[in-house]
Design brief:
The complex is a heterodimer of chains A (about 240) and B (about 220). Chain A has about 240 residues and is an alpha/beta fold. Chain A is built from nine helices and ten strands. The chains are: A alpha/beta (about 240), B mainly alpha (about 220).
């Protein structure tokens, strides 16, 4: 379970998170929508401790992410994150990209790590590309590789930060299909996305962020069907 | 026009001695390169450490190495330290001088290479549960070495050529030193130095060729 309580966060003068409360139960898929600069992506990087927070608390399975005594490296093993820019490691093959962390962090043997990596890569449809270098893959393939790389650590939670935003339109579908598959398998996920159709389909709940505040949160049919705030109504009108 | 009779035979008889000297030259160049890389990594780390004194010291090293003659650096290692009662052999002084120079130049290259690697690479590694050291060692360092590979090859060539400066601190077992000594007793100046130059040329060509092969094997991306 991920418990976010009264989280505030500023970059200099700019307050990007103004007291966010959100609890995500295991097996739940929550998507976060909202305009750019609304704080959605920042929240994700705060959840796995890549960014510090100013006040409030974030707990993952009861463990306080921002407590100094928390071993973040250990905690990150169970929280996978995939970024808008997929950040493939260019000097490693697709297979090595995926086996690196299991071998170095989880201290798996090469064979063990490869077995898991091959399974994950097949899962995302890259079983034929094992010895290819990322530079030769399309953006969509690199992004799916990044997803496999995160999954190879057997995380209990997956965070997706606008994973289709940097992709050519024709490549968006293949990545979204991968996310749908994960959702249907029961993975606990928080997805920041601009894909409204996707959000409507996979989410248990959708959260709307506006200027650092979570303005609304509801099951998709309710949130999209009967938006309560003027901001969300405007946002939905603009994105359709 | 000029009265000089070439005696190539006489000179070529000294080839075995000169090749022995070439071996010492390569030895010094290689050792100074390996040590230079180690110190360059430390200097780069020091400059990025954010610790002021350490960073200033490292920057000082890099500045001196890159903006003063290599001859001065080797001279200081021998006679400069000698003034303080630290007497090193010509071999050691030469090695220290070239290592100092290599480290300075390479540190600057490494810093440039690091800047070319996006911060997000480290972030991606950390998000997979890696420690900072792991992310640096497995993700950043290999990419840095690739970017610096060509400058490193150049520096290696430069190191070979710099060994010739050892003669000023009394080095007489390297290629240049041996040639100088042979010249003093035989006066076949042109022939001996022409052969030495050809050997230097061959060594540096082998290095660049070898580097190209190595690059093709190492960097397949």
């Amino acid at each position: 379970m991920i418990e976010i309580e009264k989280v505030r966060k500023s970059f200099g003068q700019l307050e990007v998170l103004k007291g966010i409360d959100l609890t995500v139960k295991n097996g739940e898929v929550v998507t976060i929508i909202g305009g750019s600069g609304s704080g959605k992506s920042t929240l994700l990087t705060c959840i796995n401790g890549l960014e510090p927070i100013d006040s409030g608390s974030i707990k993952v399975d009861g463990q306080d992410v921002h407590d100094k005594r928390t071993n973040l490296n250990k905690l990150r093993e169970k929280i996978g994150i995939v970024f808008q820019q997929w950040n493939a490691f260019p000097h490693l093959t697709v297979l090595e990209n995926v086996t690196l962390a299991p071998r170095k962090v989880l201290k798996m043997s090469k064979a063990e790590a490869e077995e898991i990596a091959v399974r994950q890569l097949r899962h995302v449809g890259l079983g034929e590309k094992l010895s290819t270098y990322p530079g030769r893959l399309s953006g969509g393939q690199q992004q799916r590789m990044a997803i496999a790389r995160a999954l190879a650590m057997s995380p209990e939670y997956m965070l997706f930060d606008e994973v289709t935003s940097a992709l050519d339109p024709q490549l968006v579908g293949e990545v979204l299909d991968t996310l749908r598959m994960l959702a249907s398998e029961g993975m606990t996920m928080i997805c920041v996305t601009h894909e409204m159709k996707f959000a409507r389909e996979v989410s248990d709940r959708v959260a709307f962020f506006h200027k650092g505040v979570m303005a609304e949160i509801a099951p998709p049919e309710e949130l999209f069907g009967a938006p309560k705030t003027a901001e969300l109504q405007q946002f939905l009108a603009a994105t359709h | 026009m000029f009265h000089y009779t070439f005696h190539w035979n006489q000179a070529f008889q000294k080839l075995p001695q000169m090749l022995d000297g070439a071996l010492v030259t390569v030895e010094i160049a290689l050792a100074s390169m390996v040590l230079g890389i180690v110190f360059a990594v430390l200097l780069t780390g020091a400059r990025l450490s954010g610790w002021r004194t350490l960073s200033a010291l490292a920057t000082g090293w890099v500045e001196i190495a890159r903006n003063t003659p290599a001859l001065f650096q080797i001279y200081m290692a021998h006679f400069g330290l000698g003034s303080f009662g630290i007497h090193l052999s010509p071999f050691t002084s030469l090695l220290i001088g070239i290592t100092f120079n290599n480290a300075g130049y390479l540190a600057e290259n490494f810093r440039g290479a690091l800047k070319a690697i996006p911060e997000t690479q480290t972030r991606a590694g950390r998000s997979l549960g890696m420690t900072g050291v792991q992310a640096f060692g497995w993700i950043v360092l290999p990419q840095m070495l690739r970017i610096s590979f060509l400058p490193m090859t150049n520096q290696m060539v430069w190191a070979v050529l710099m060994t010739s400066l050892g003669v000023t601190v009394g080095m007489n077992t390297d290629l240049y030193g041996v040639t100088q000594a042979l010249n003093a007793i035989s006066f076949r100046t042109f022939e001996l130095f022409a052969i030495a130059a050809a050997i230097f040329y061959a060594i540096t060509k082998i290095i660049t060729f070898g580097a190209r092969l190595l690059a093709a094997r190492l960097f397949r991306y």
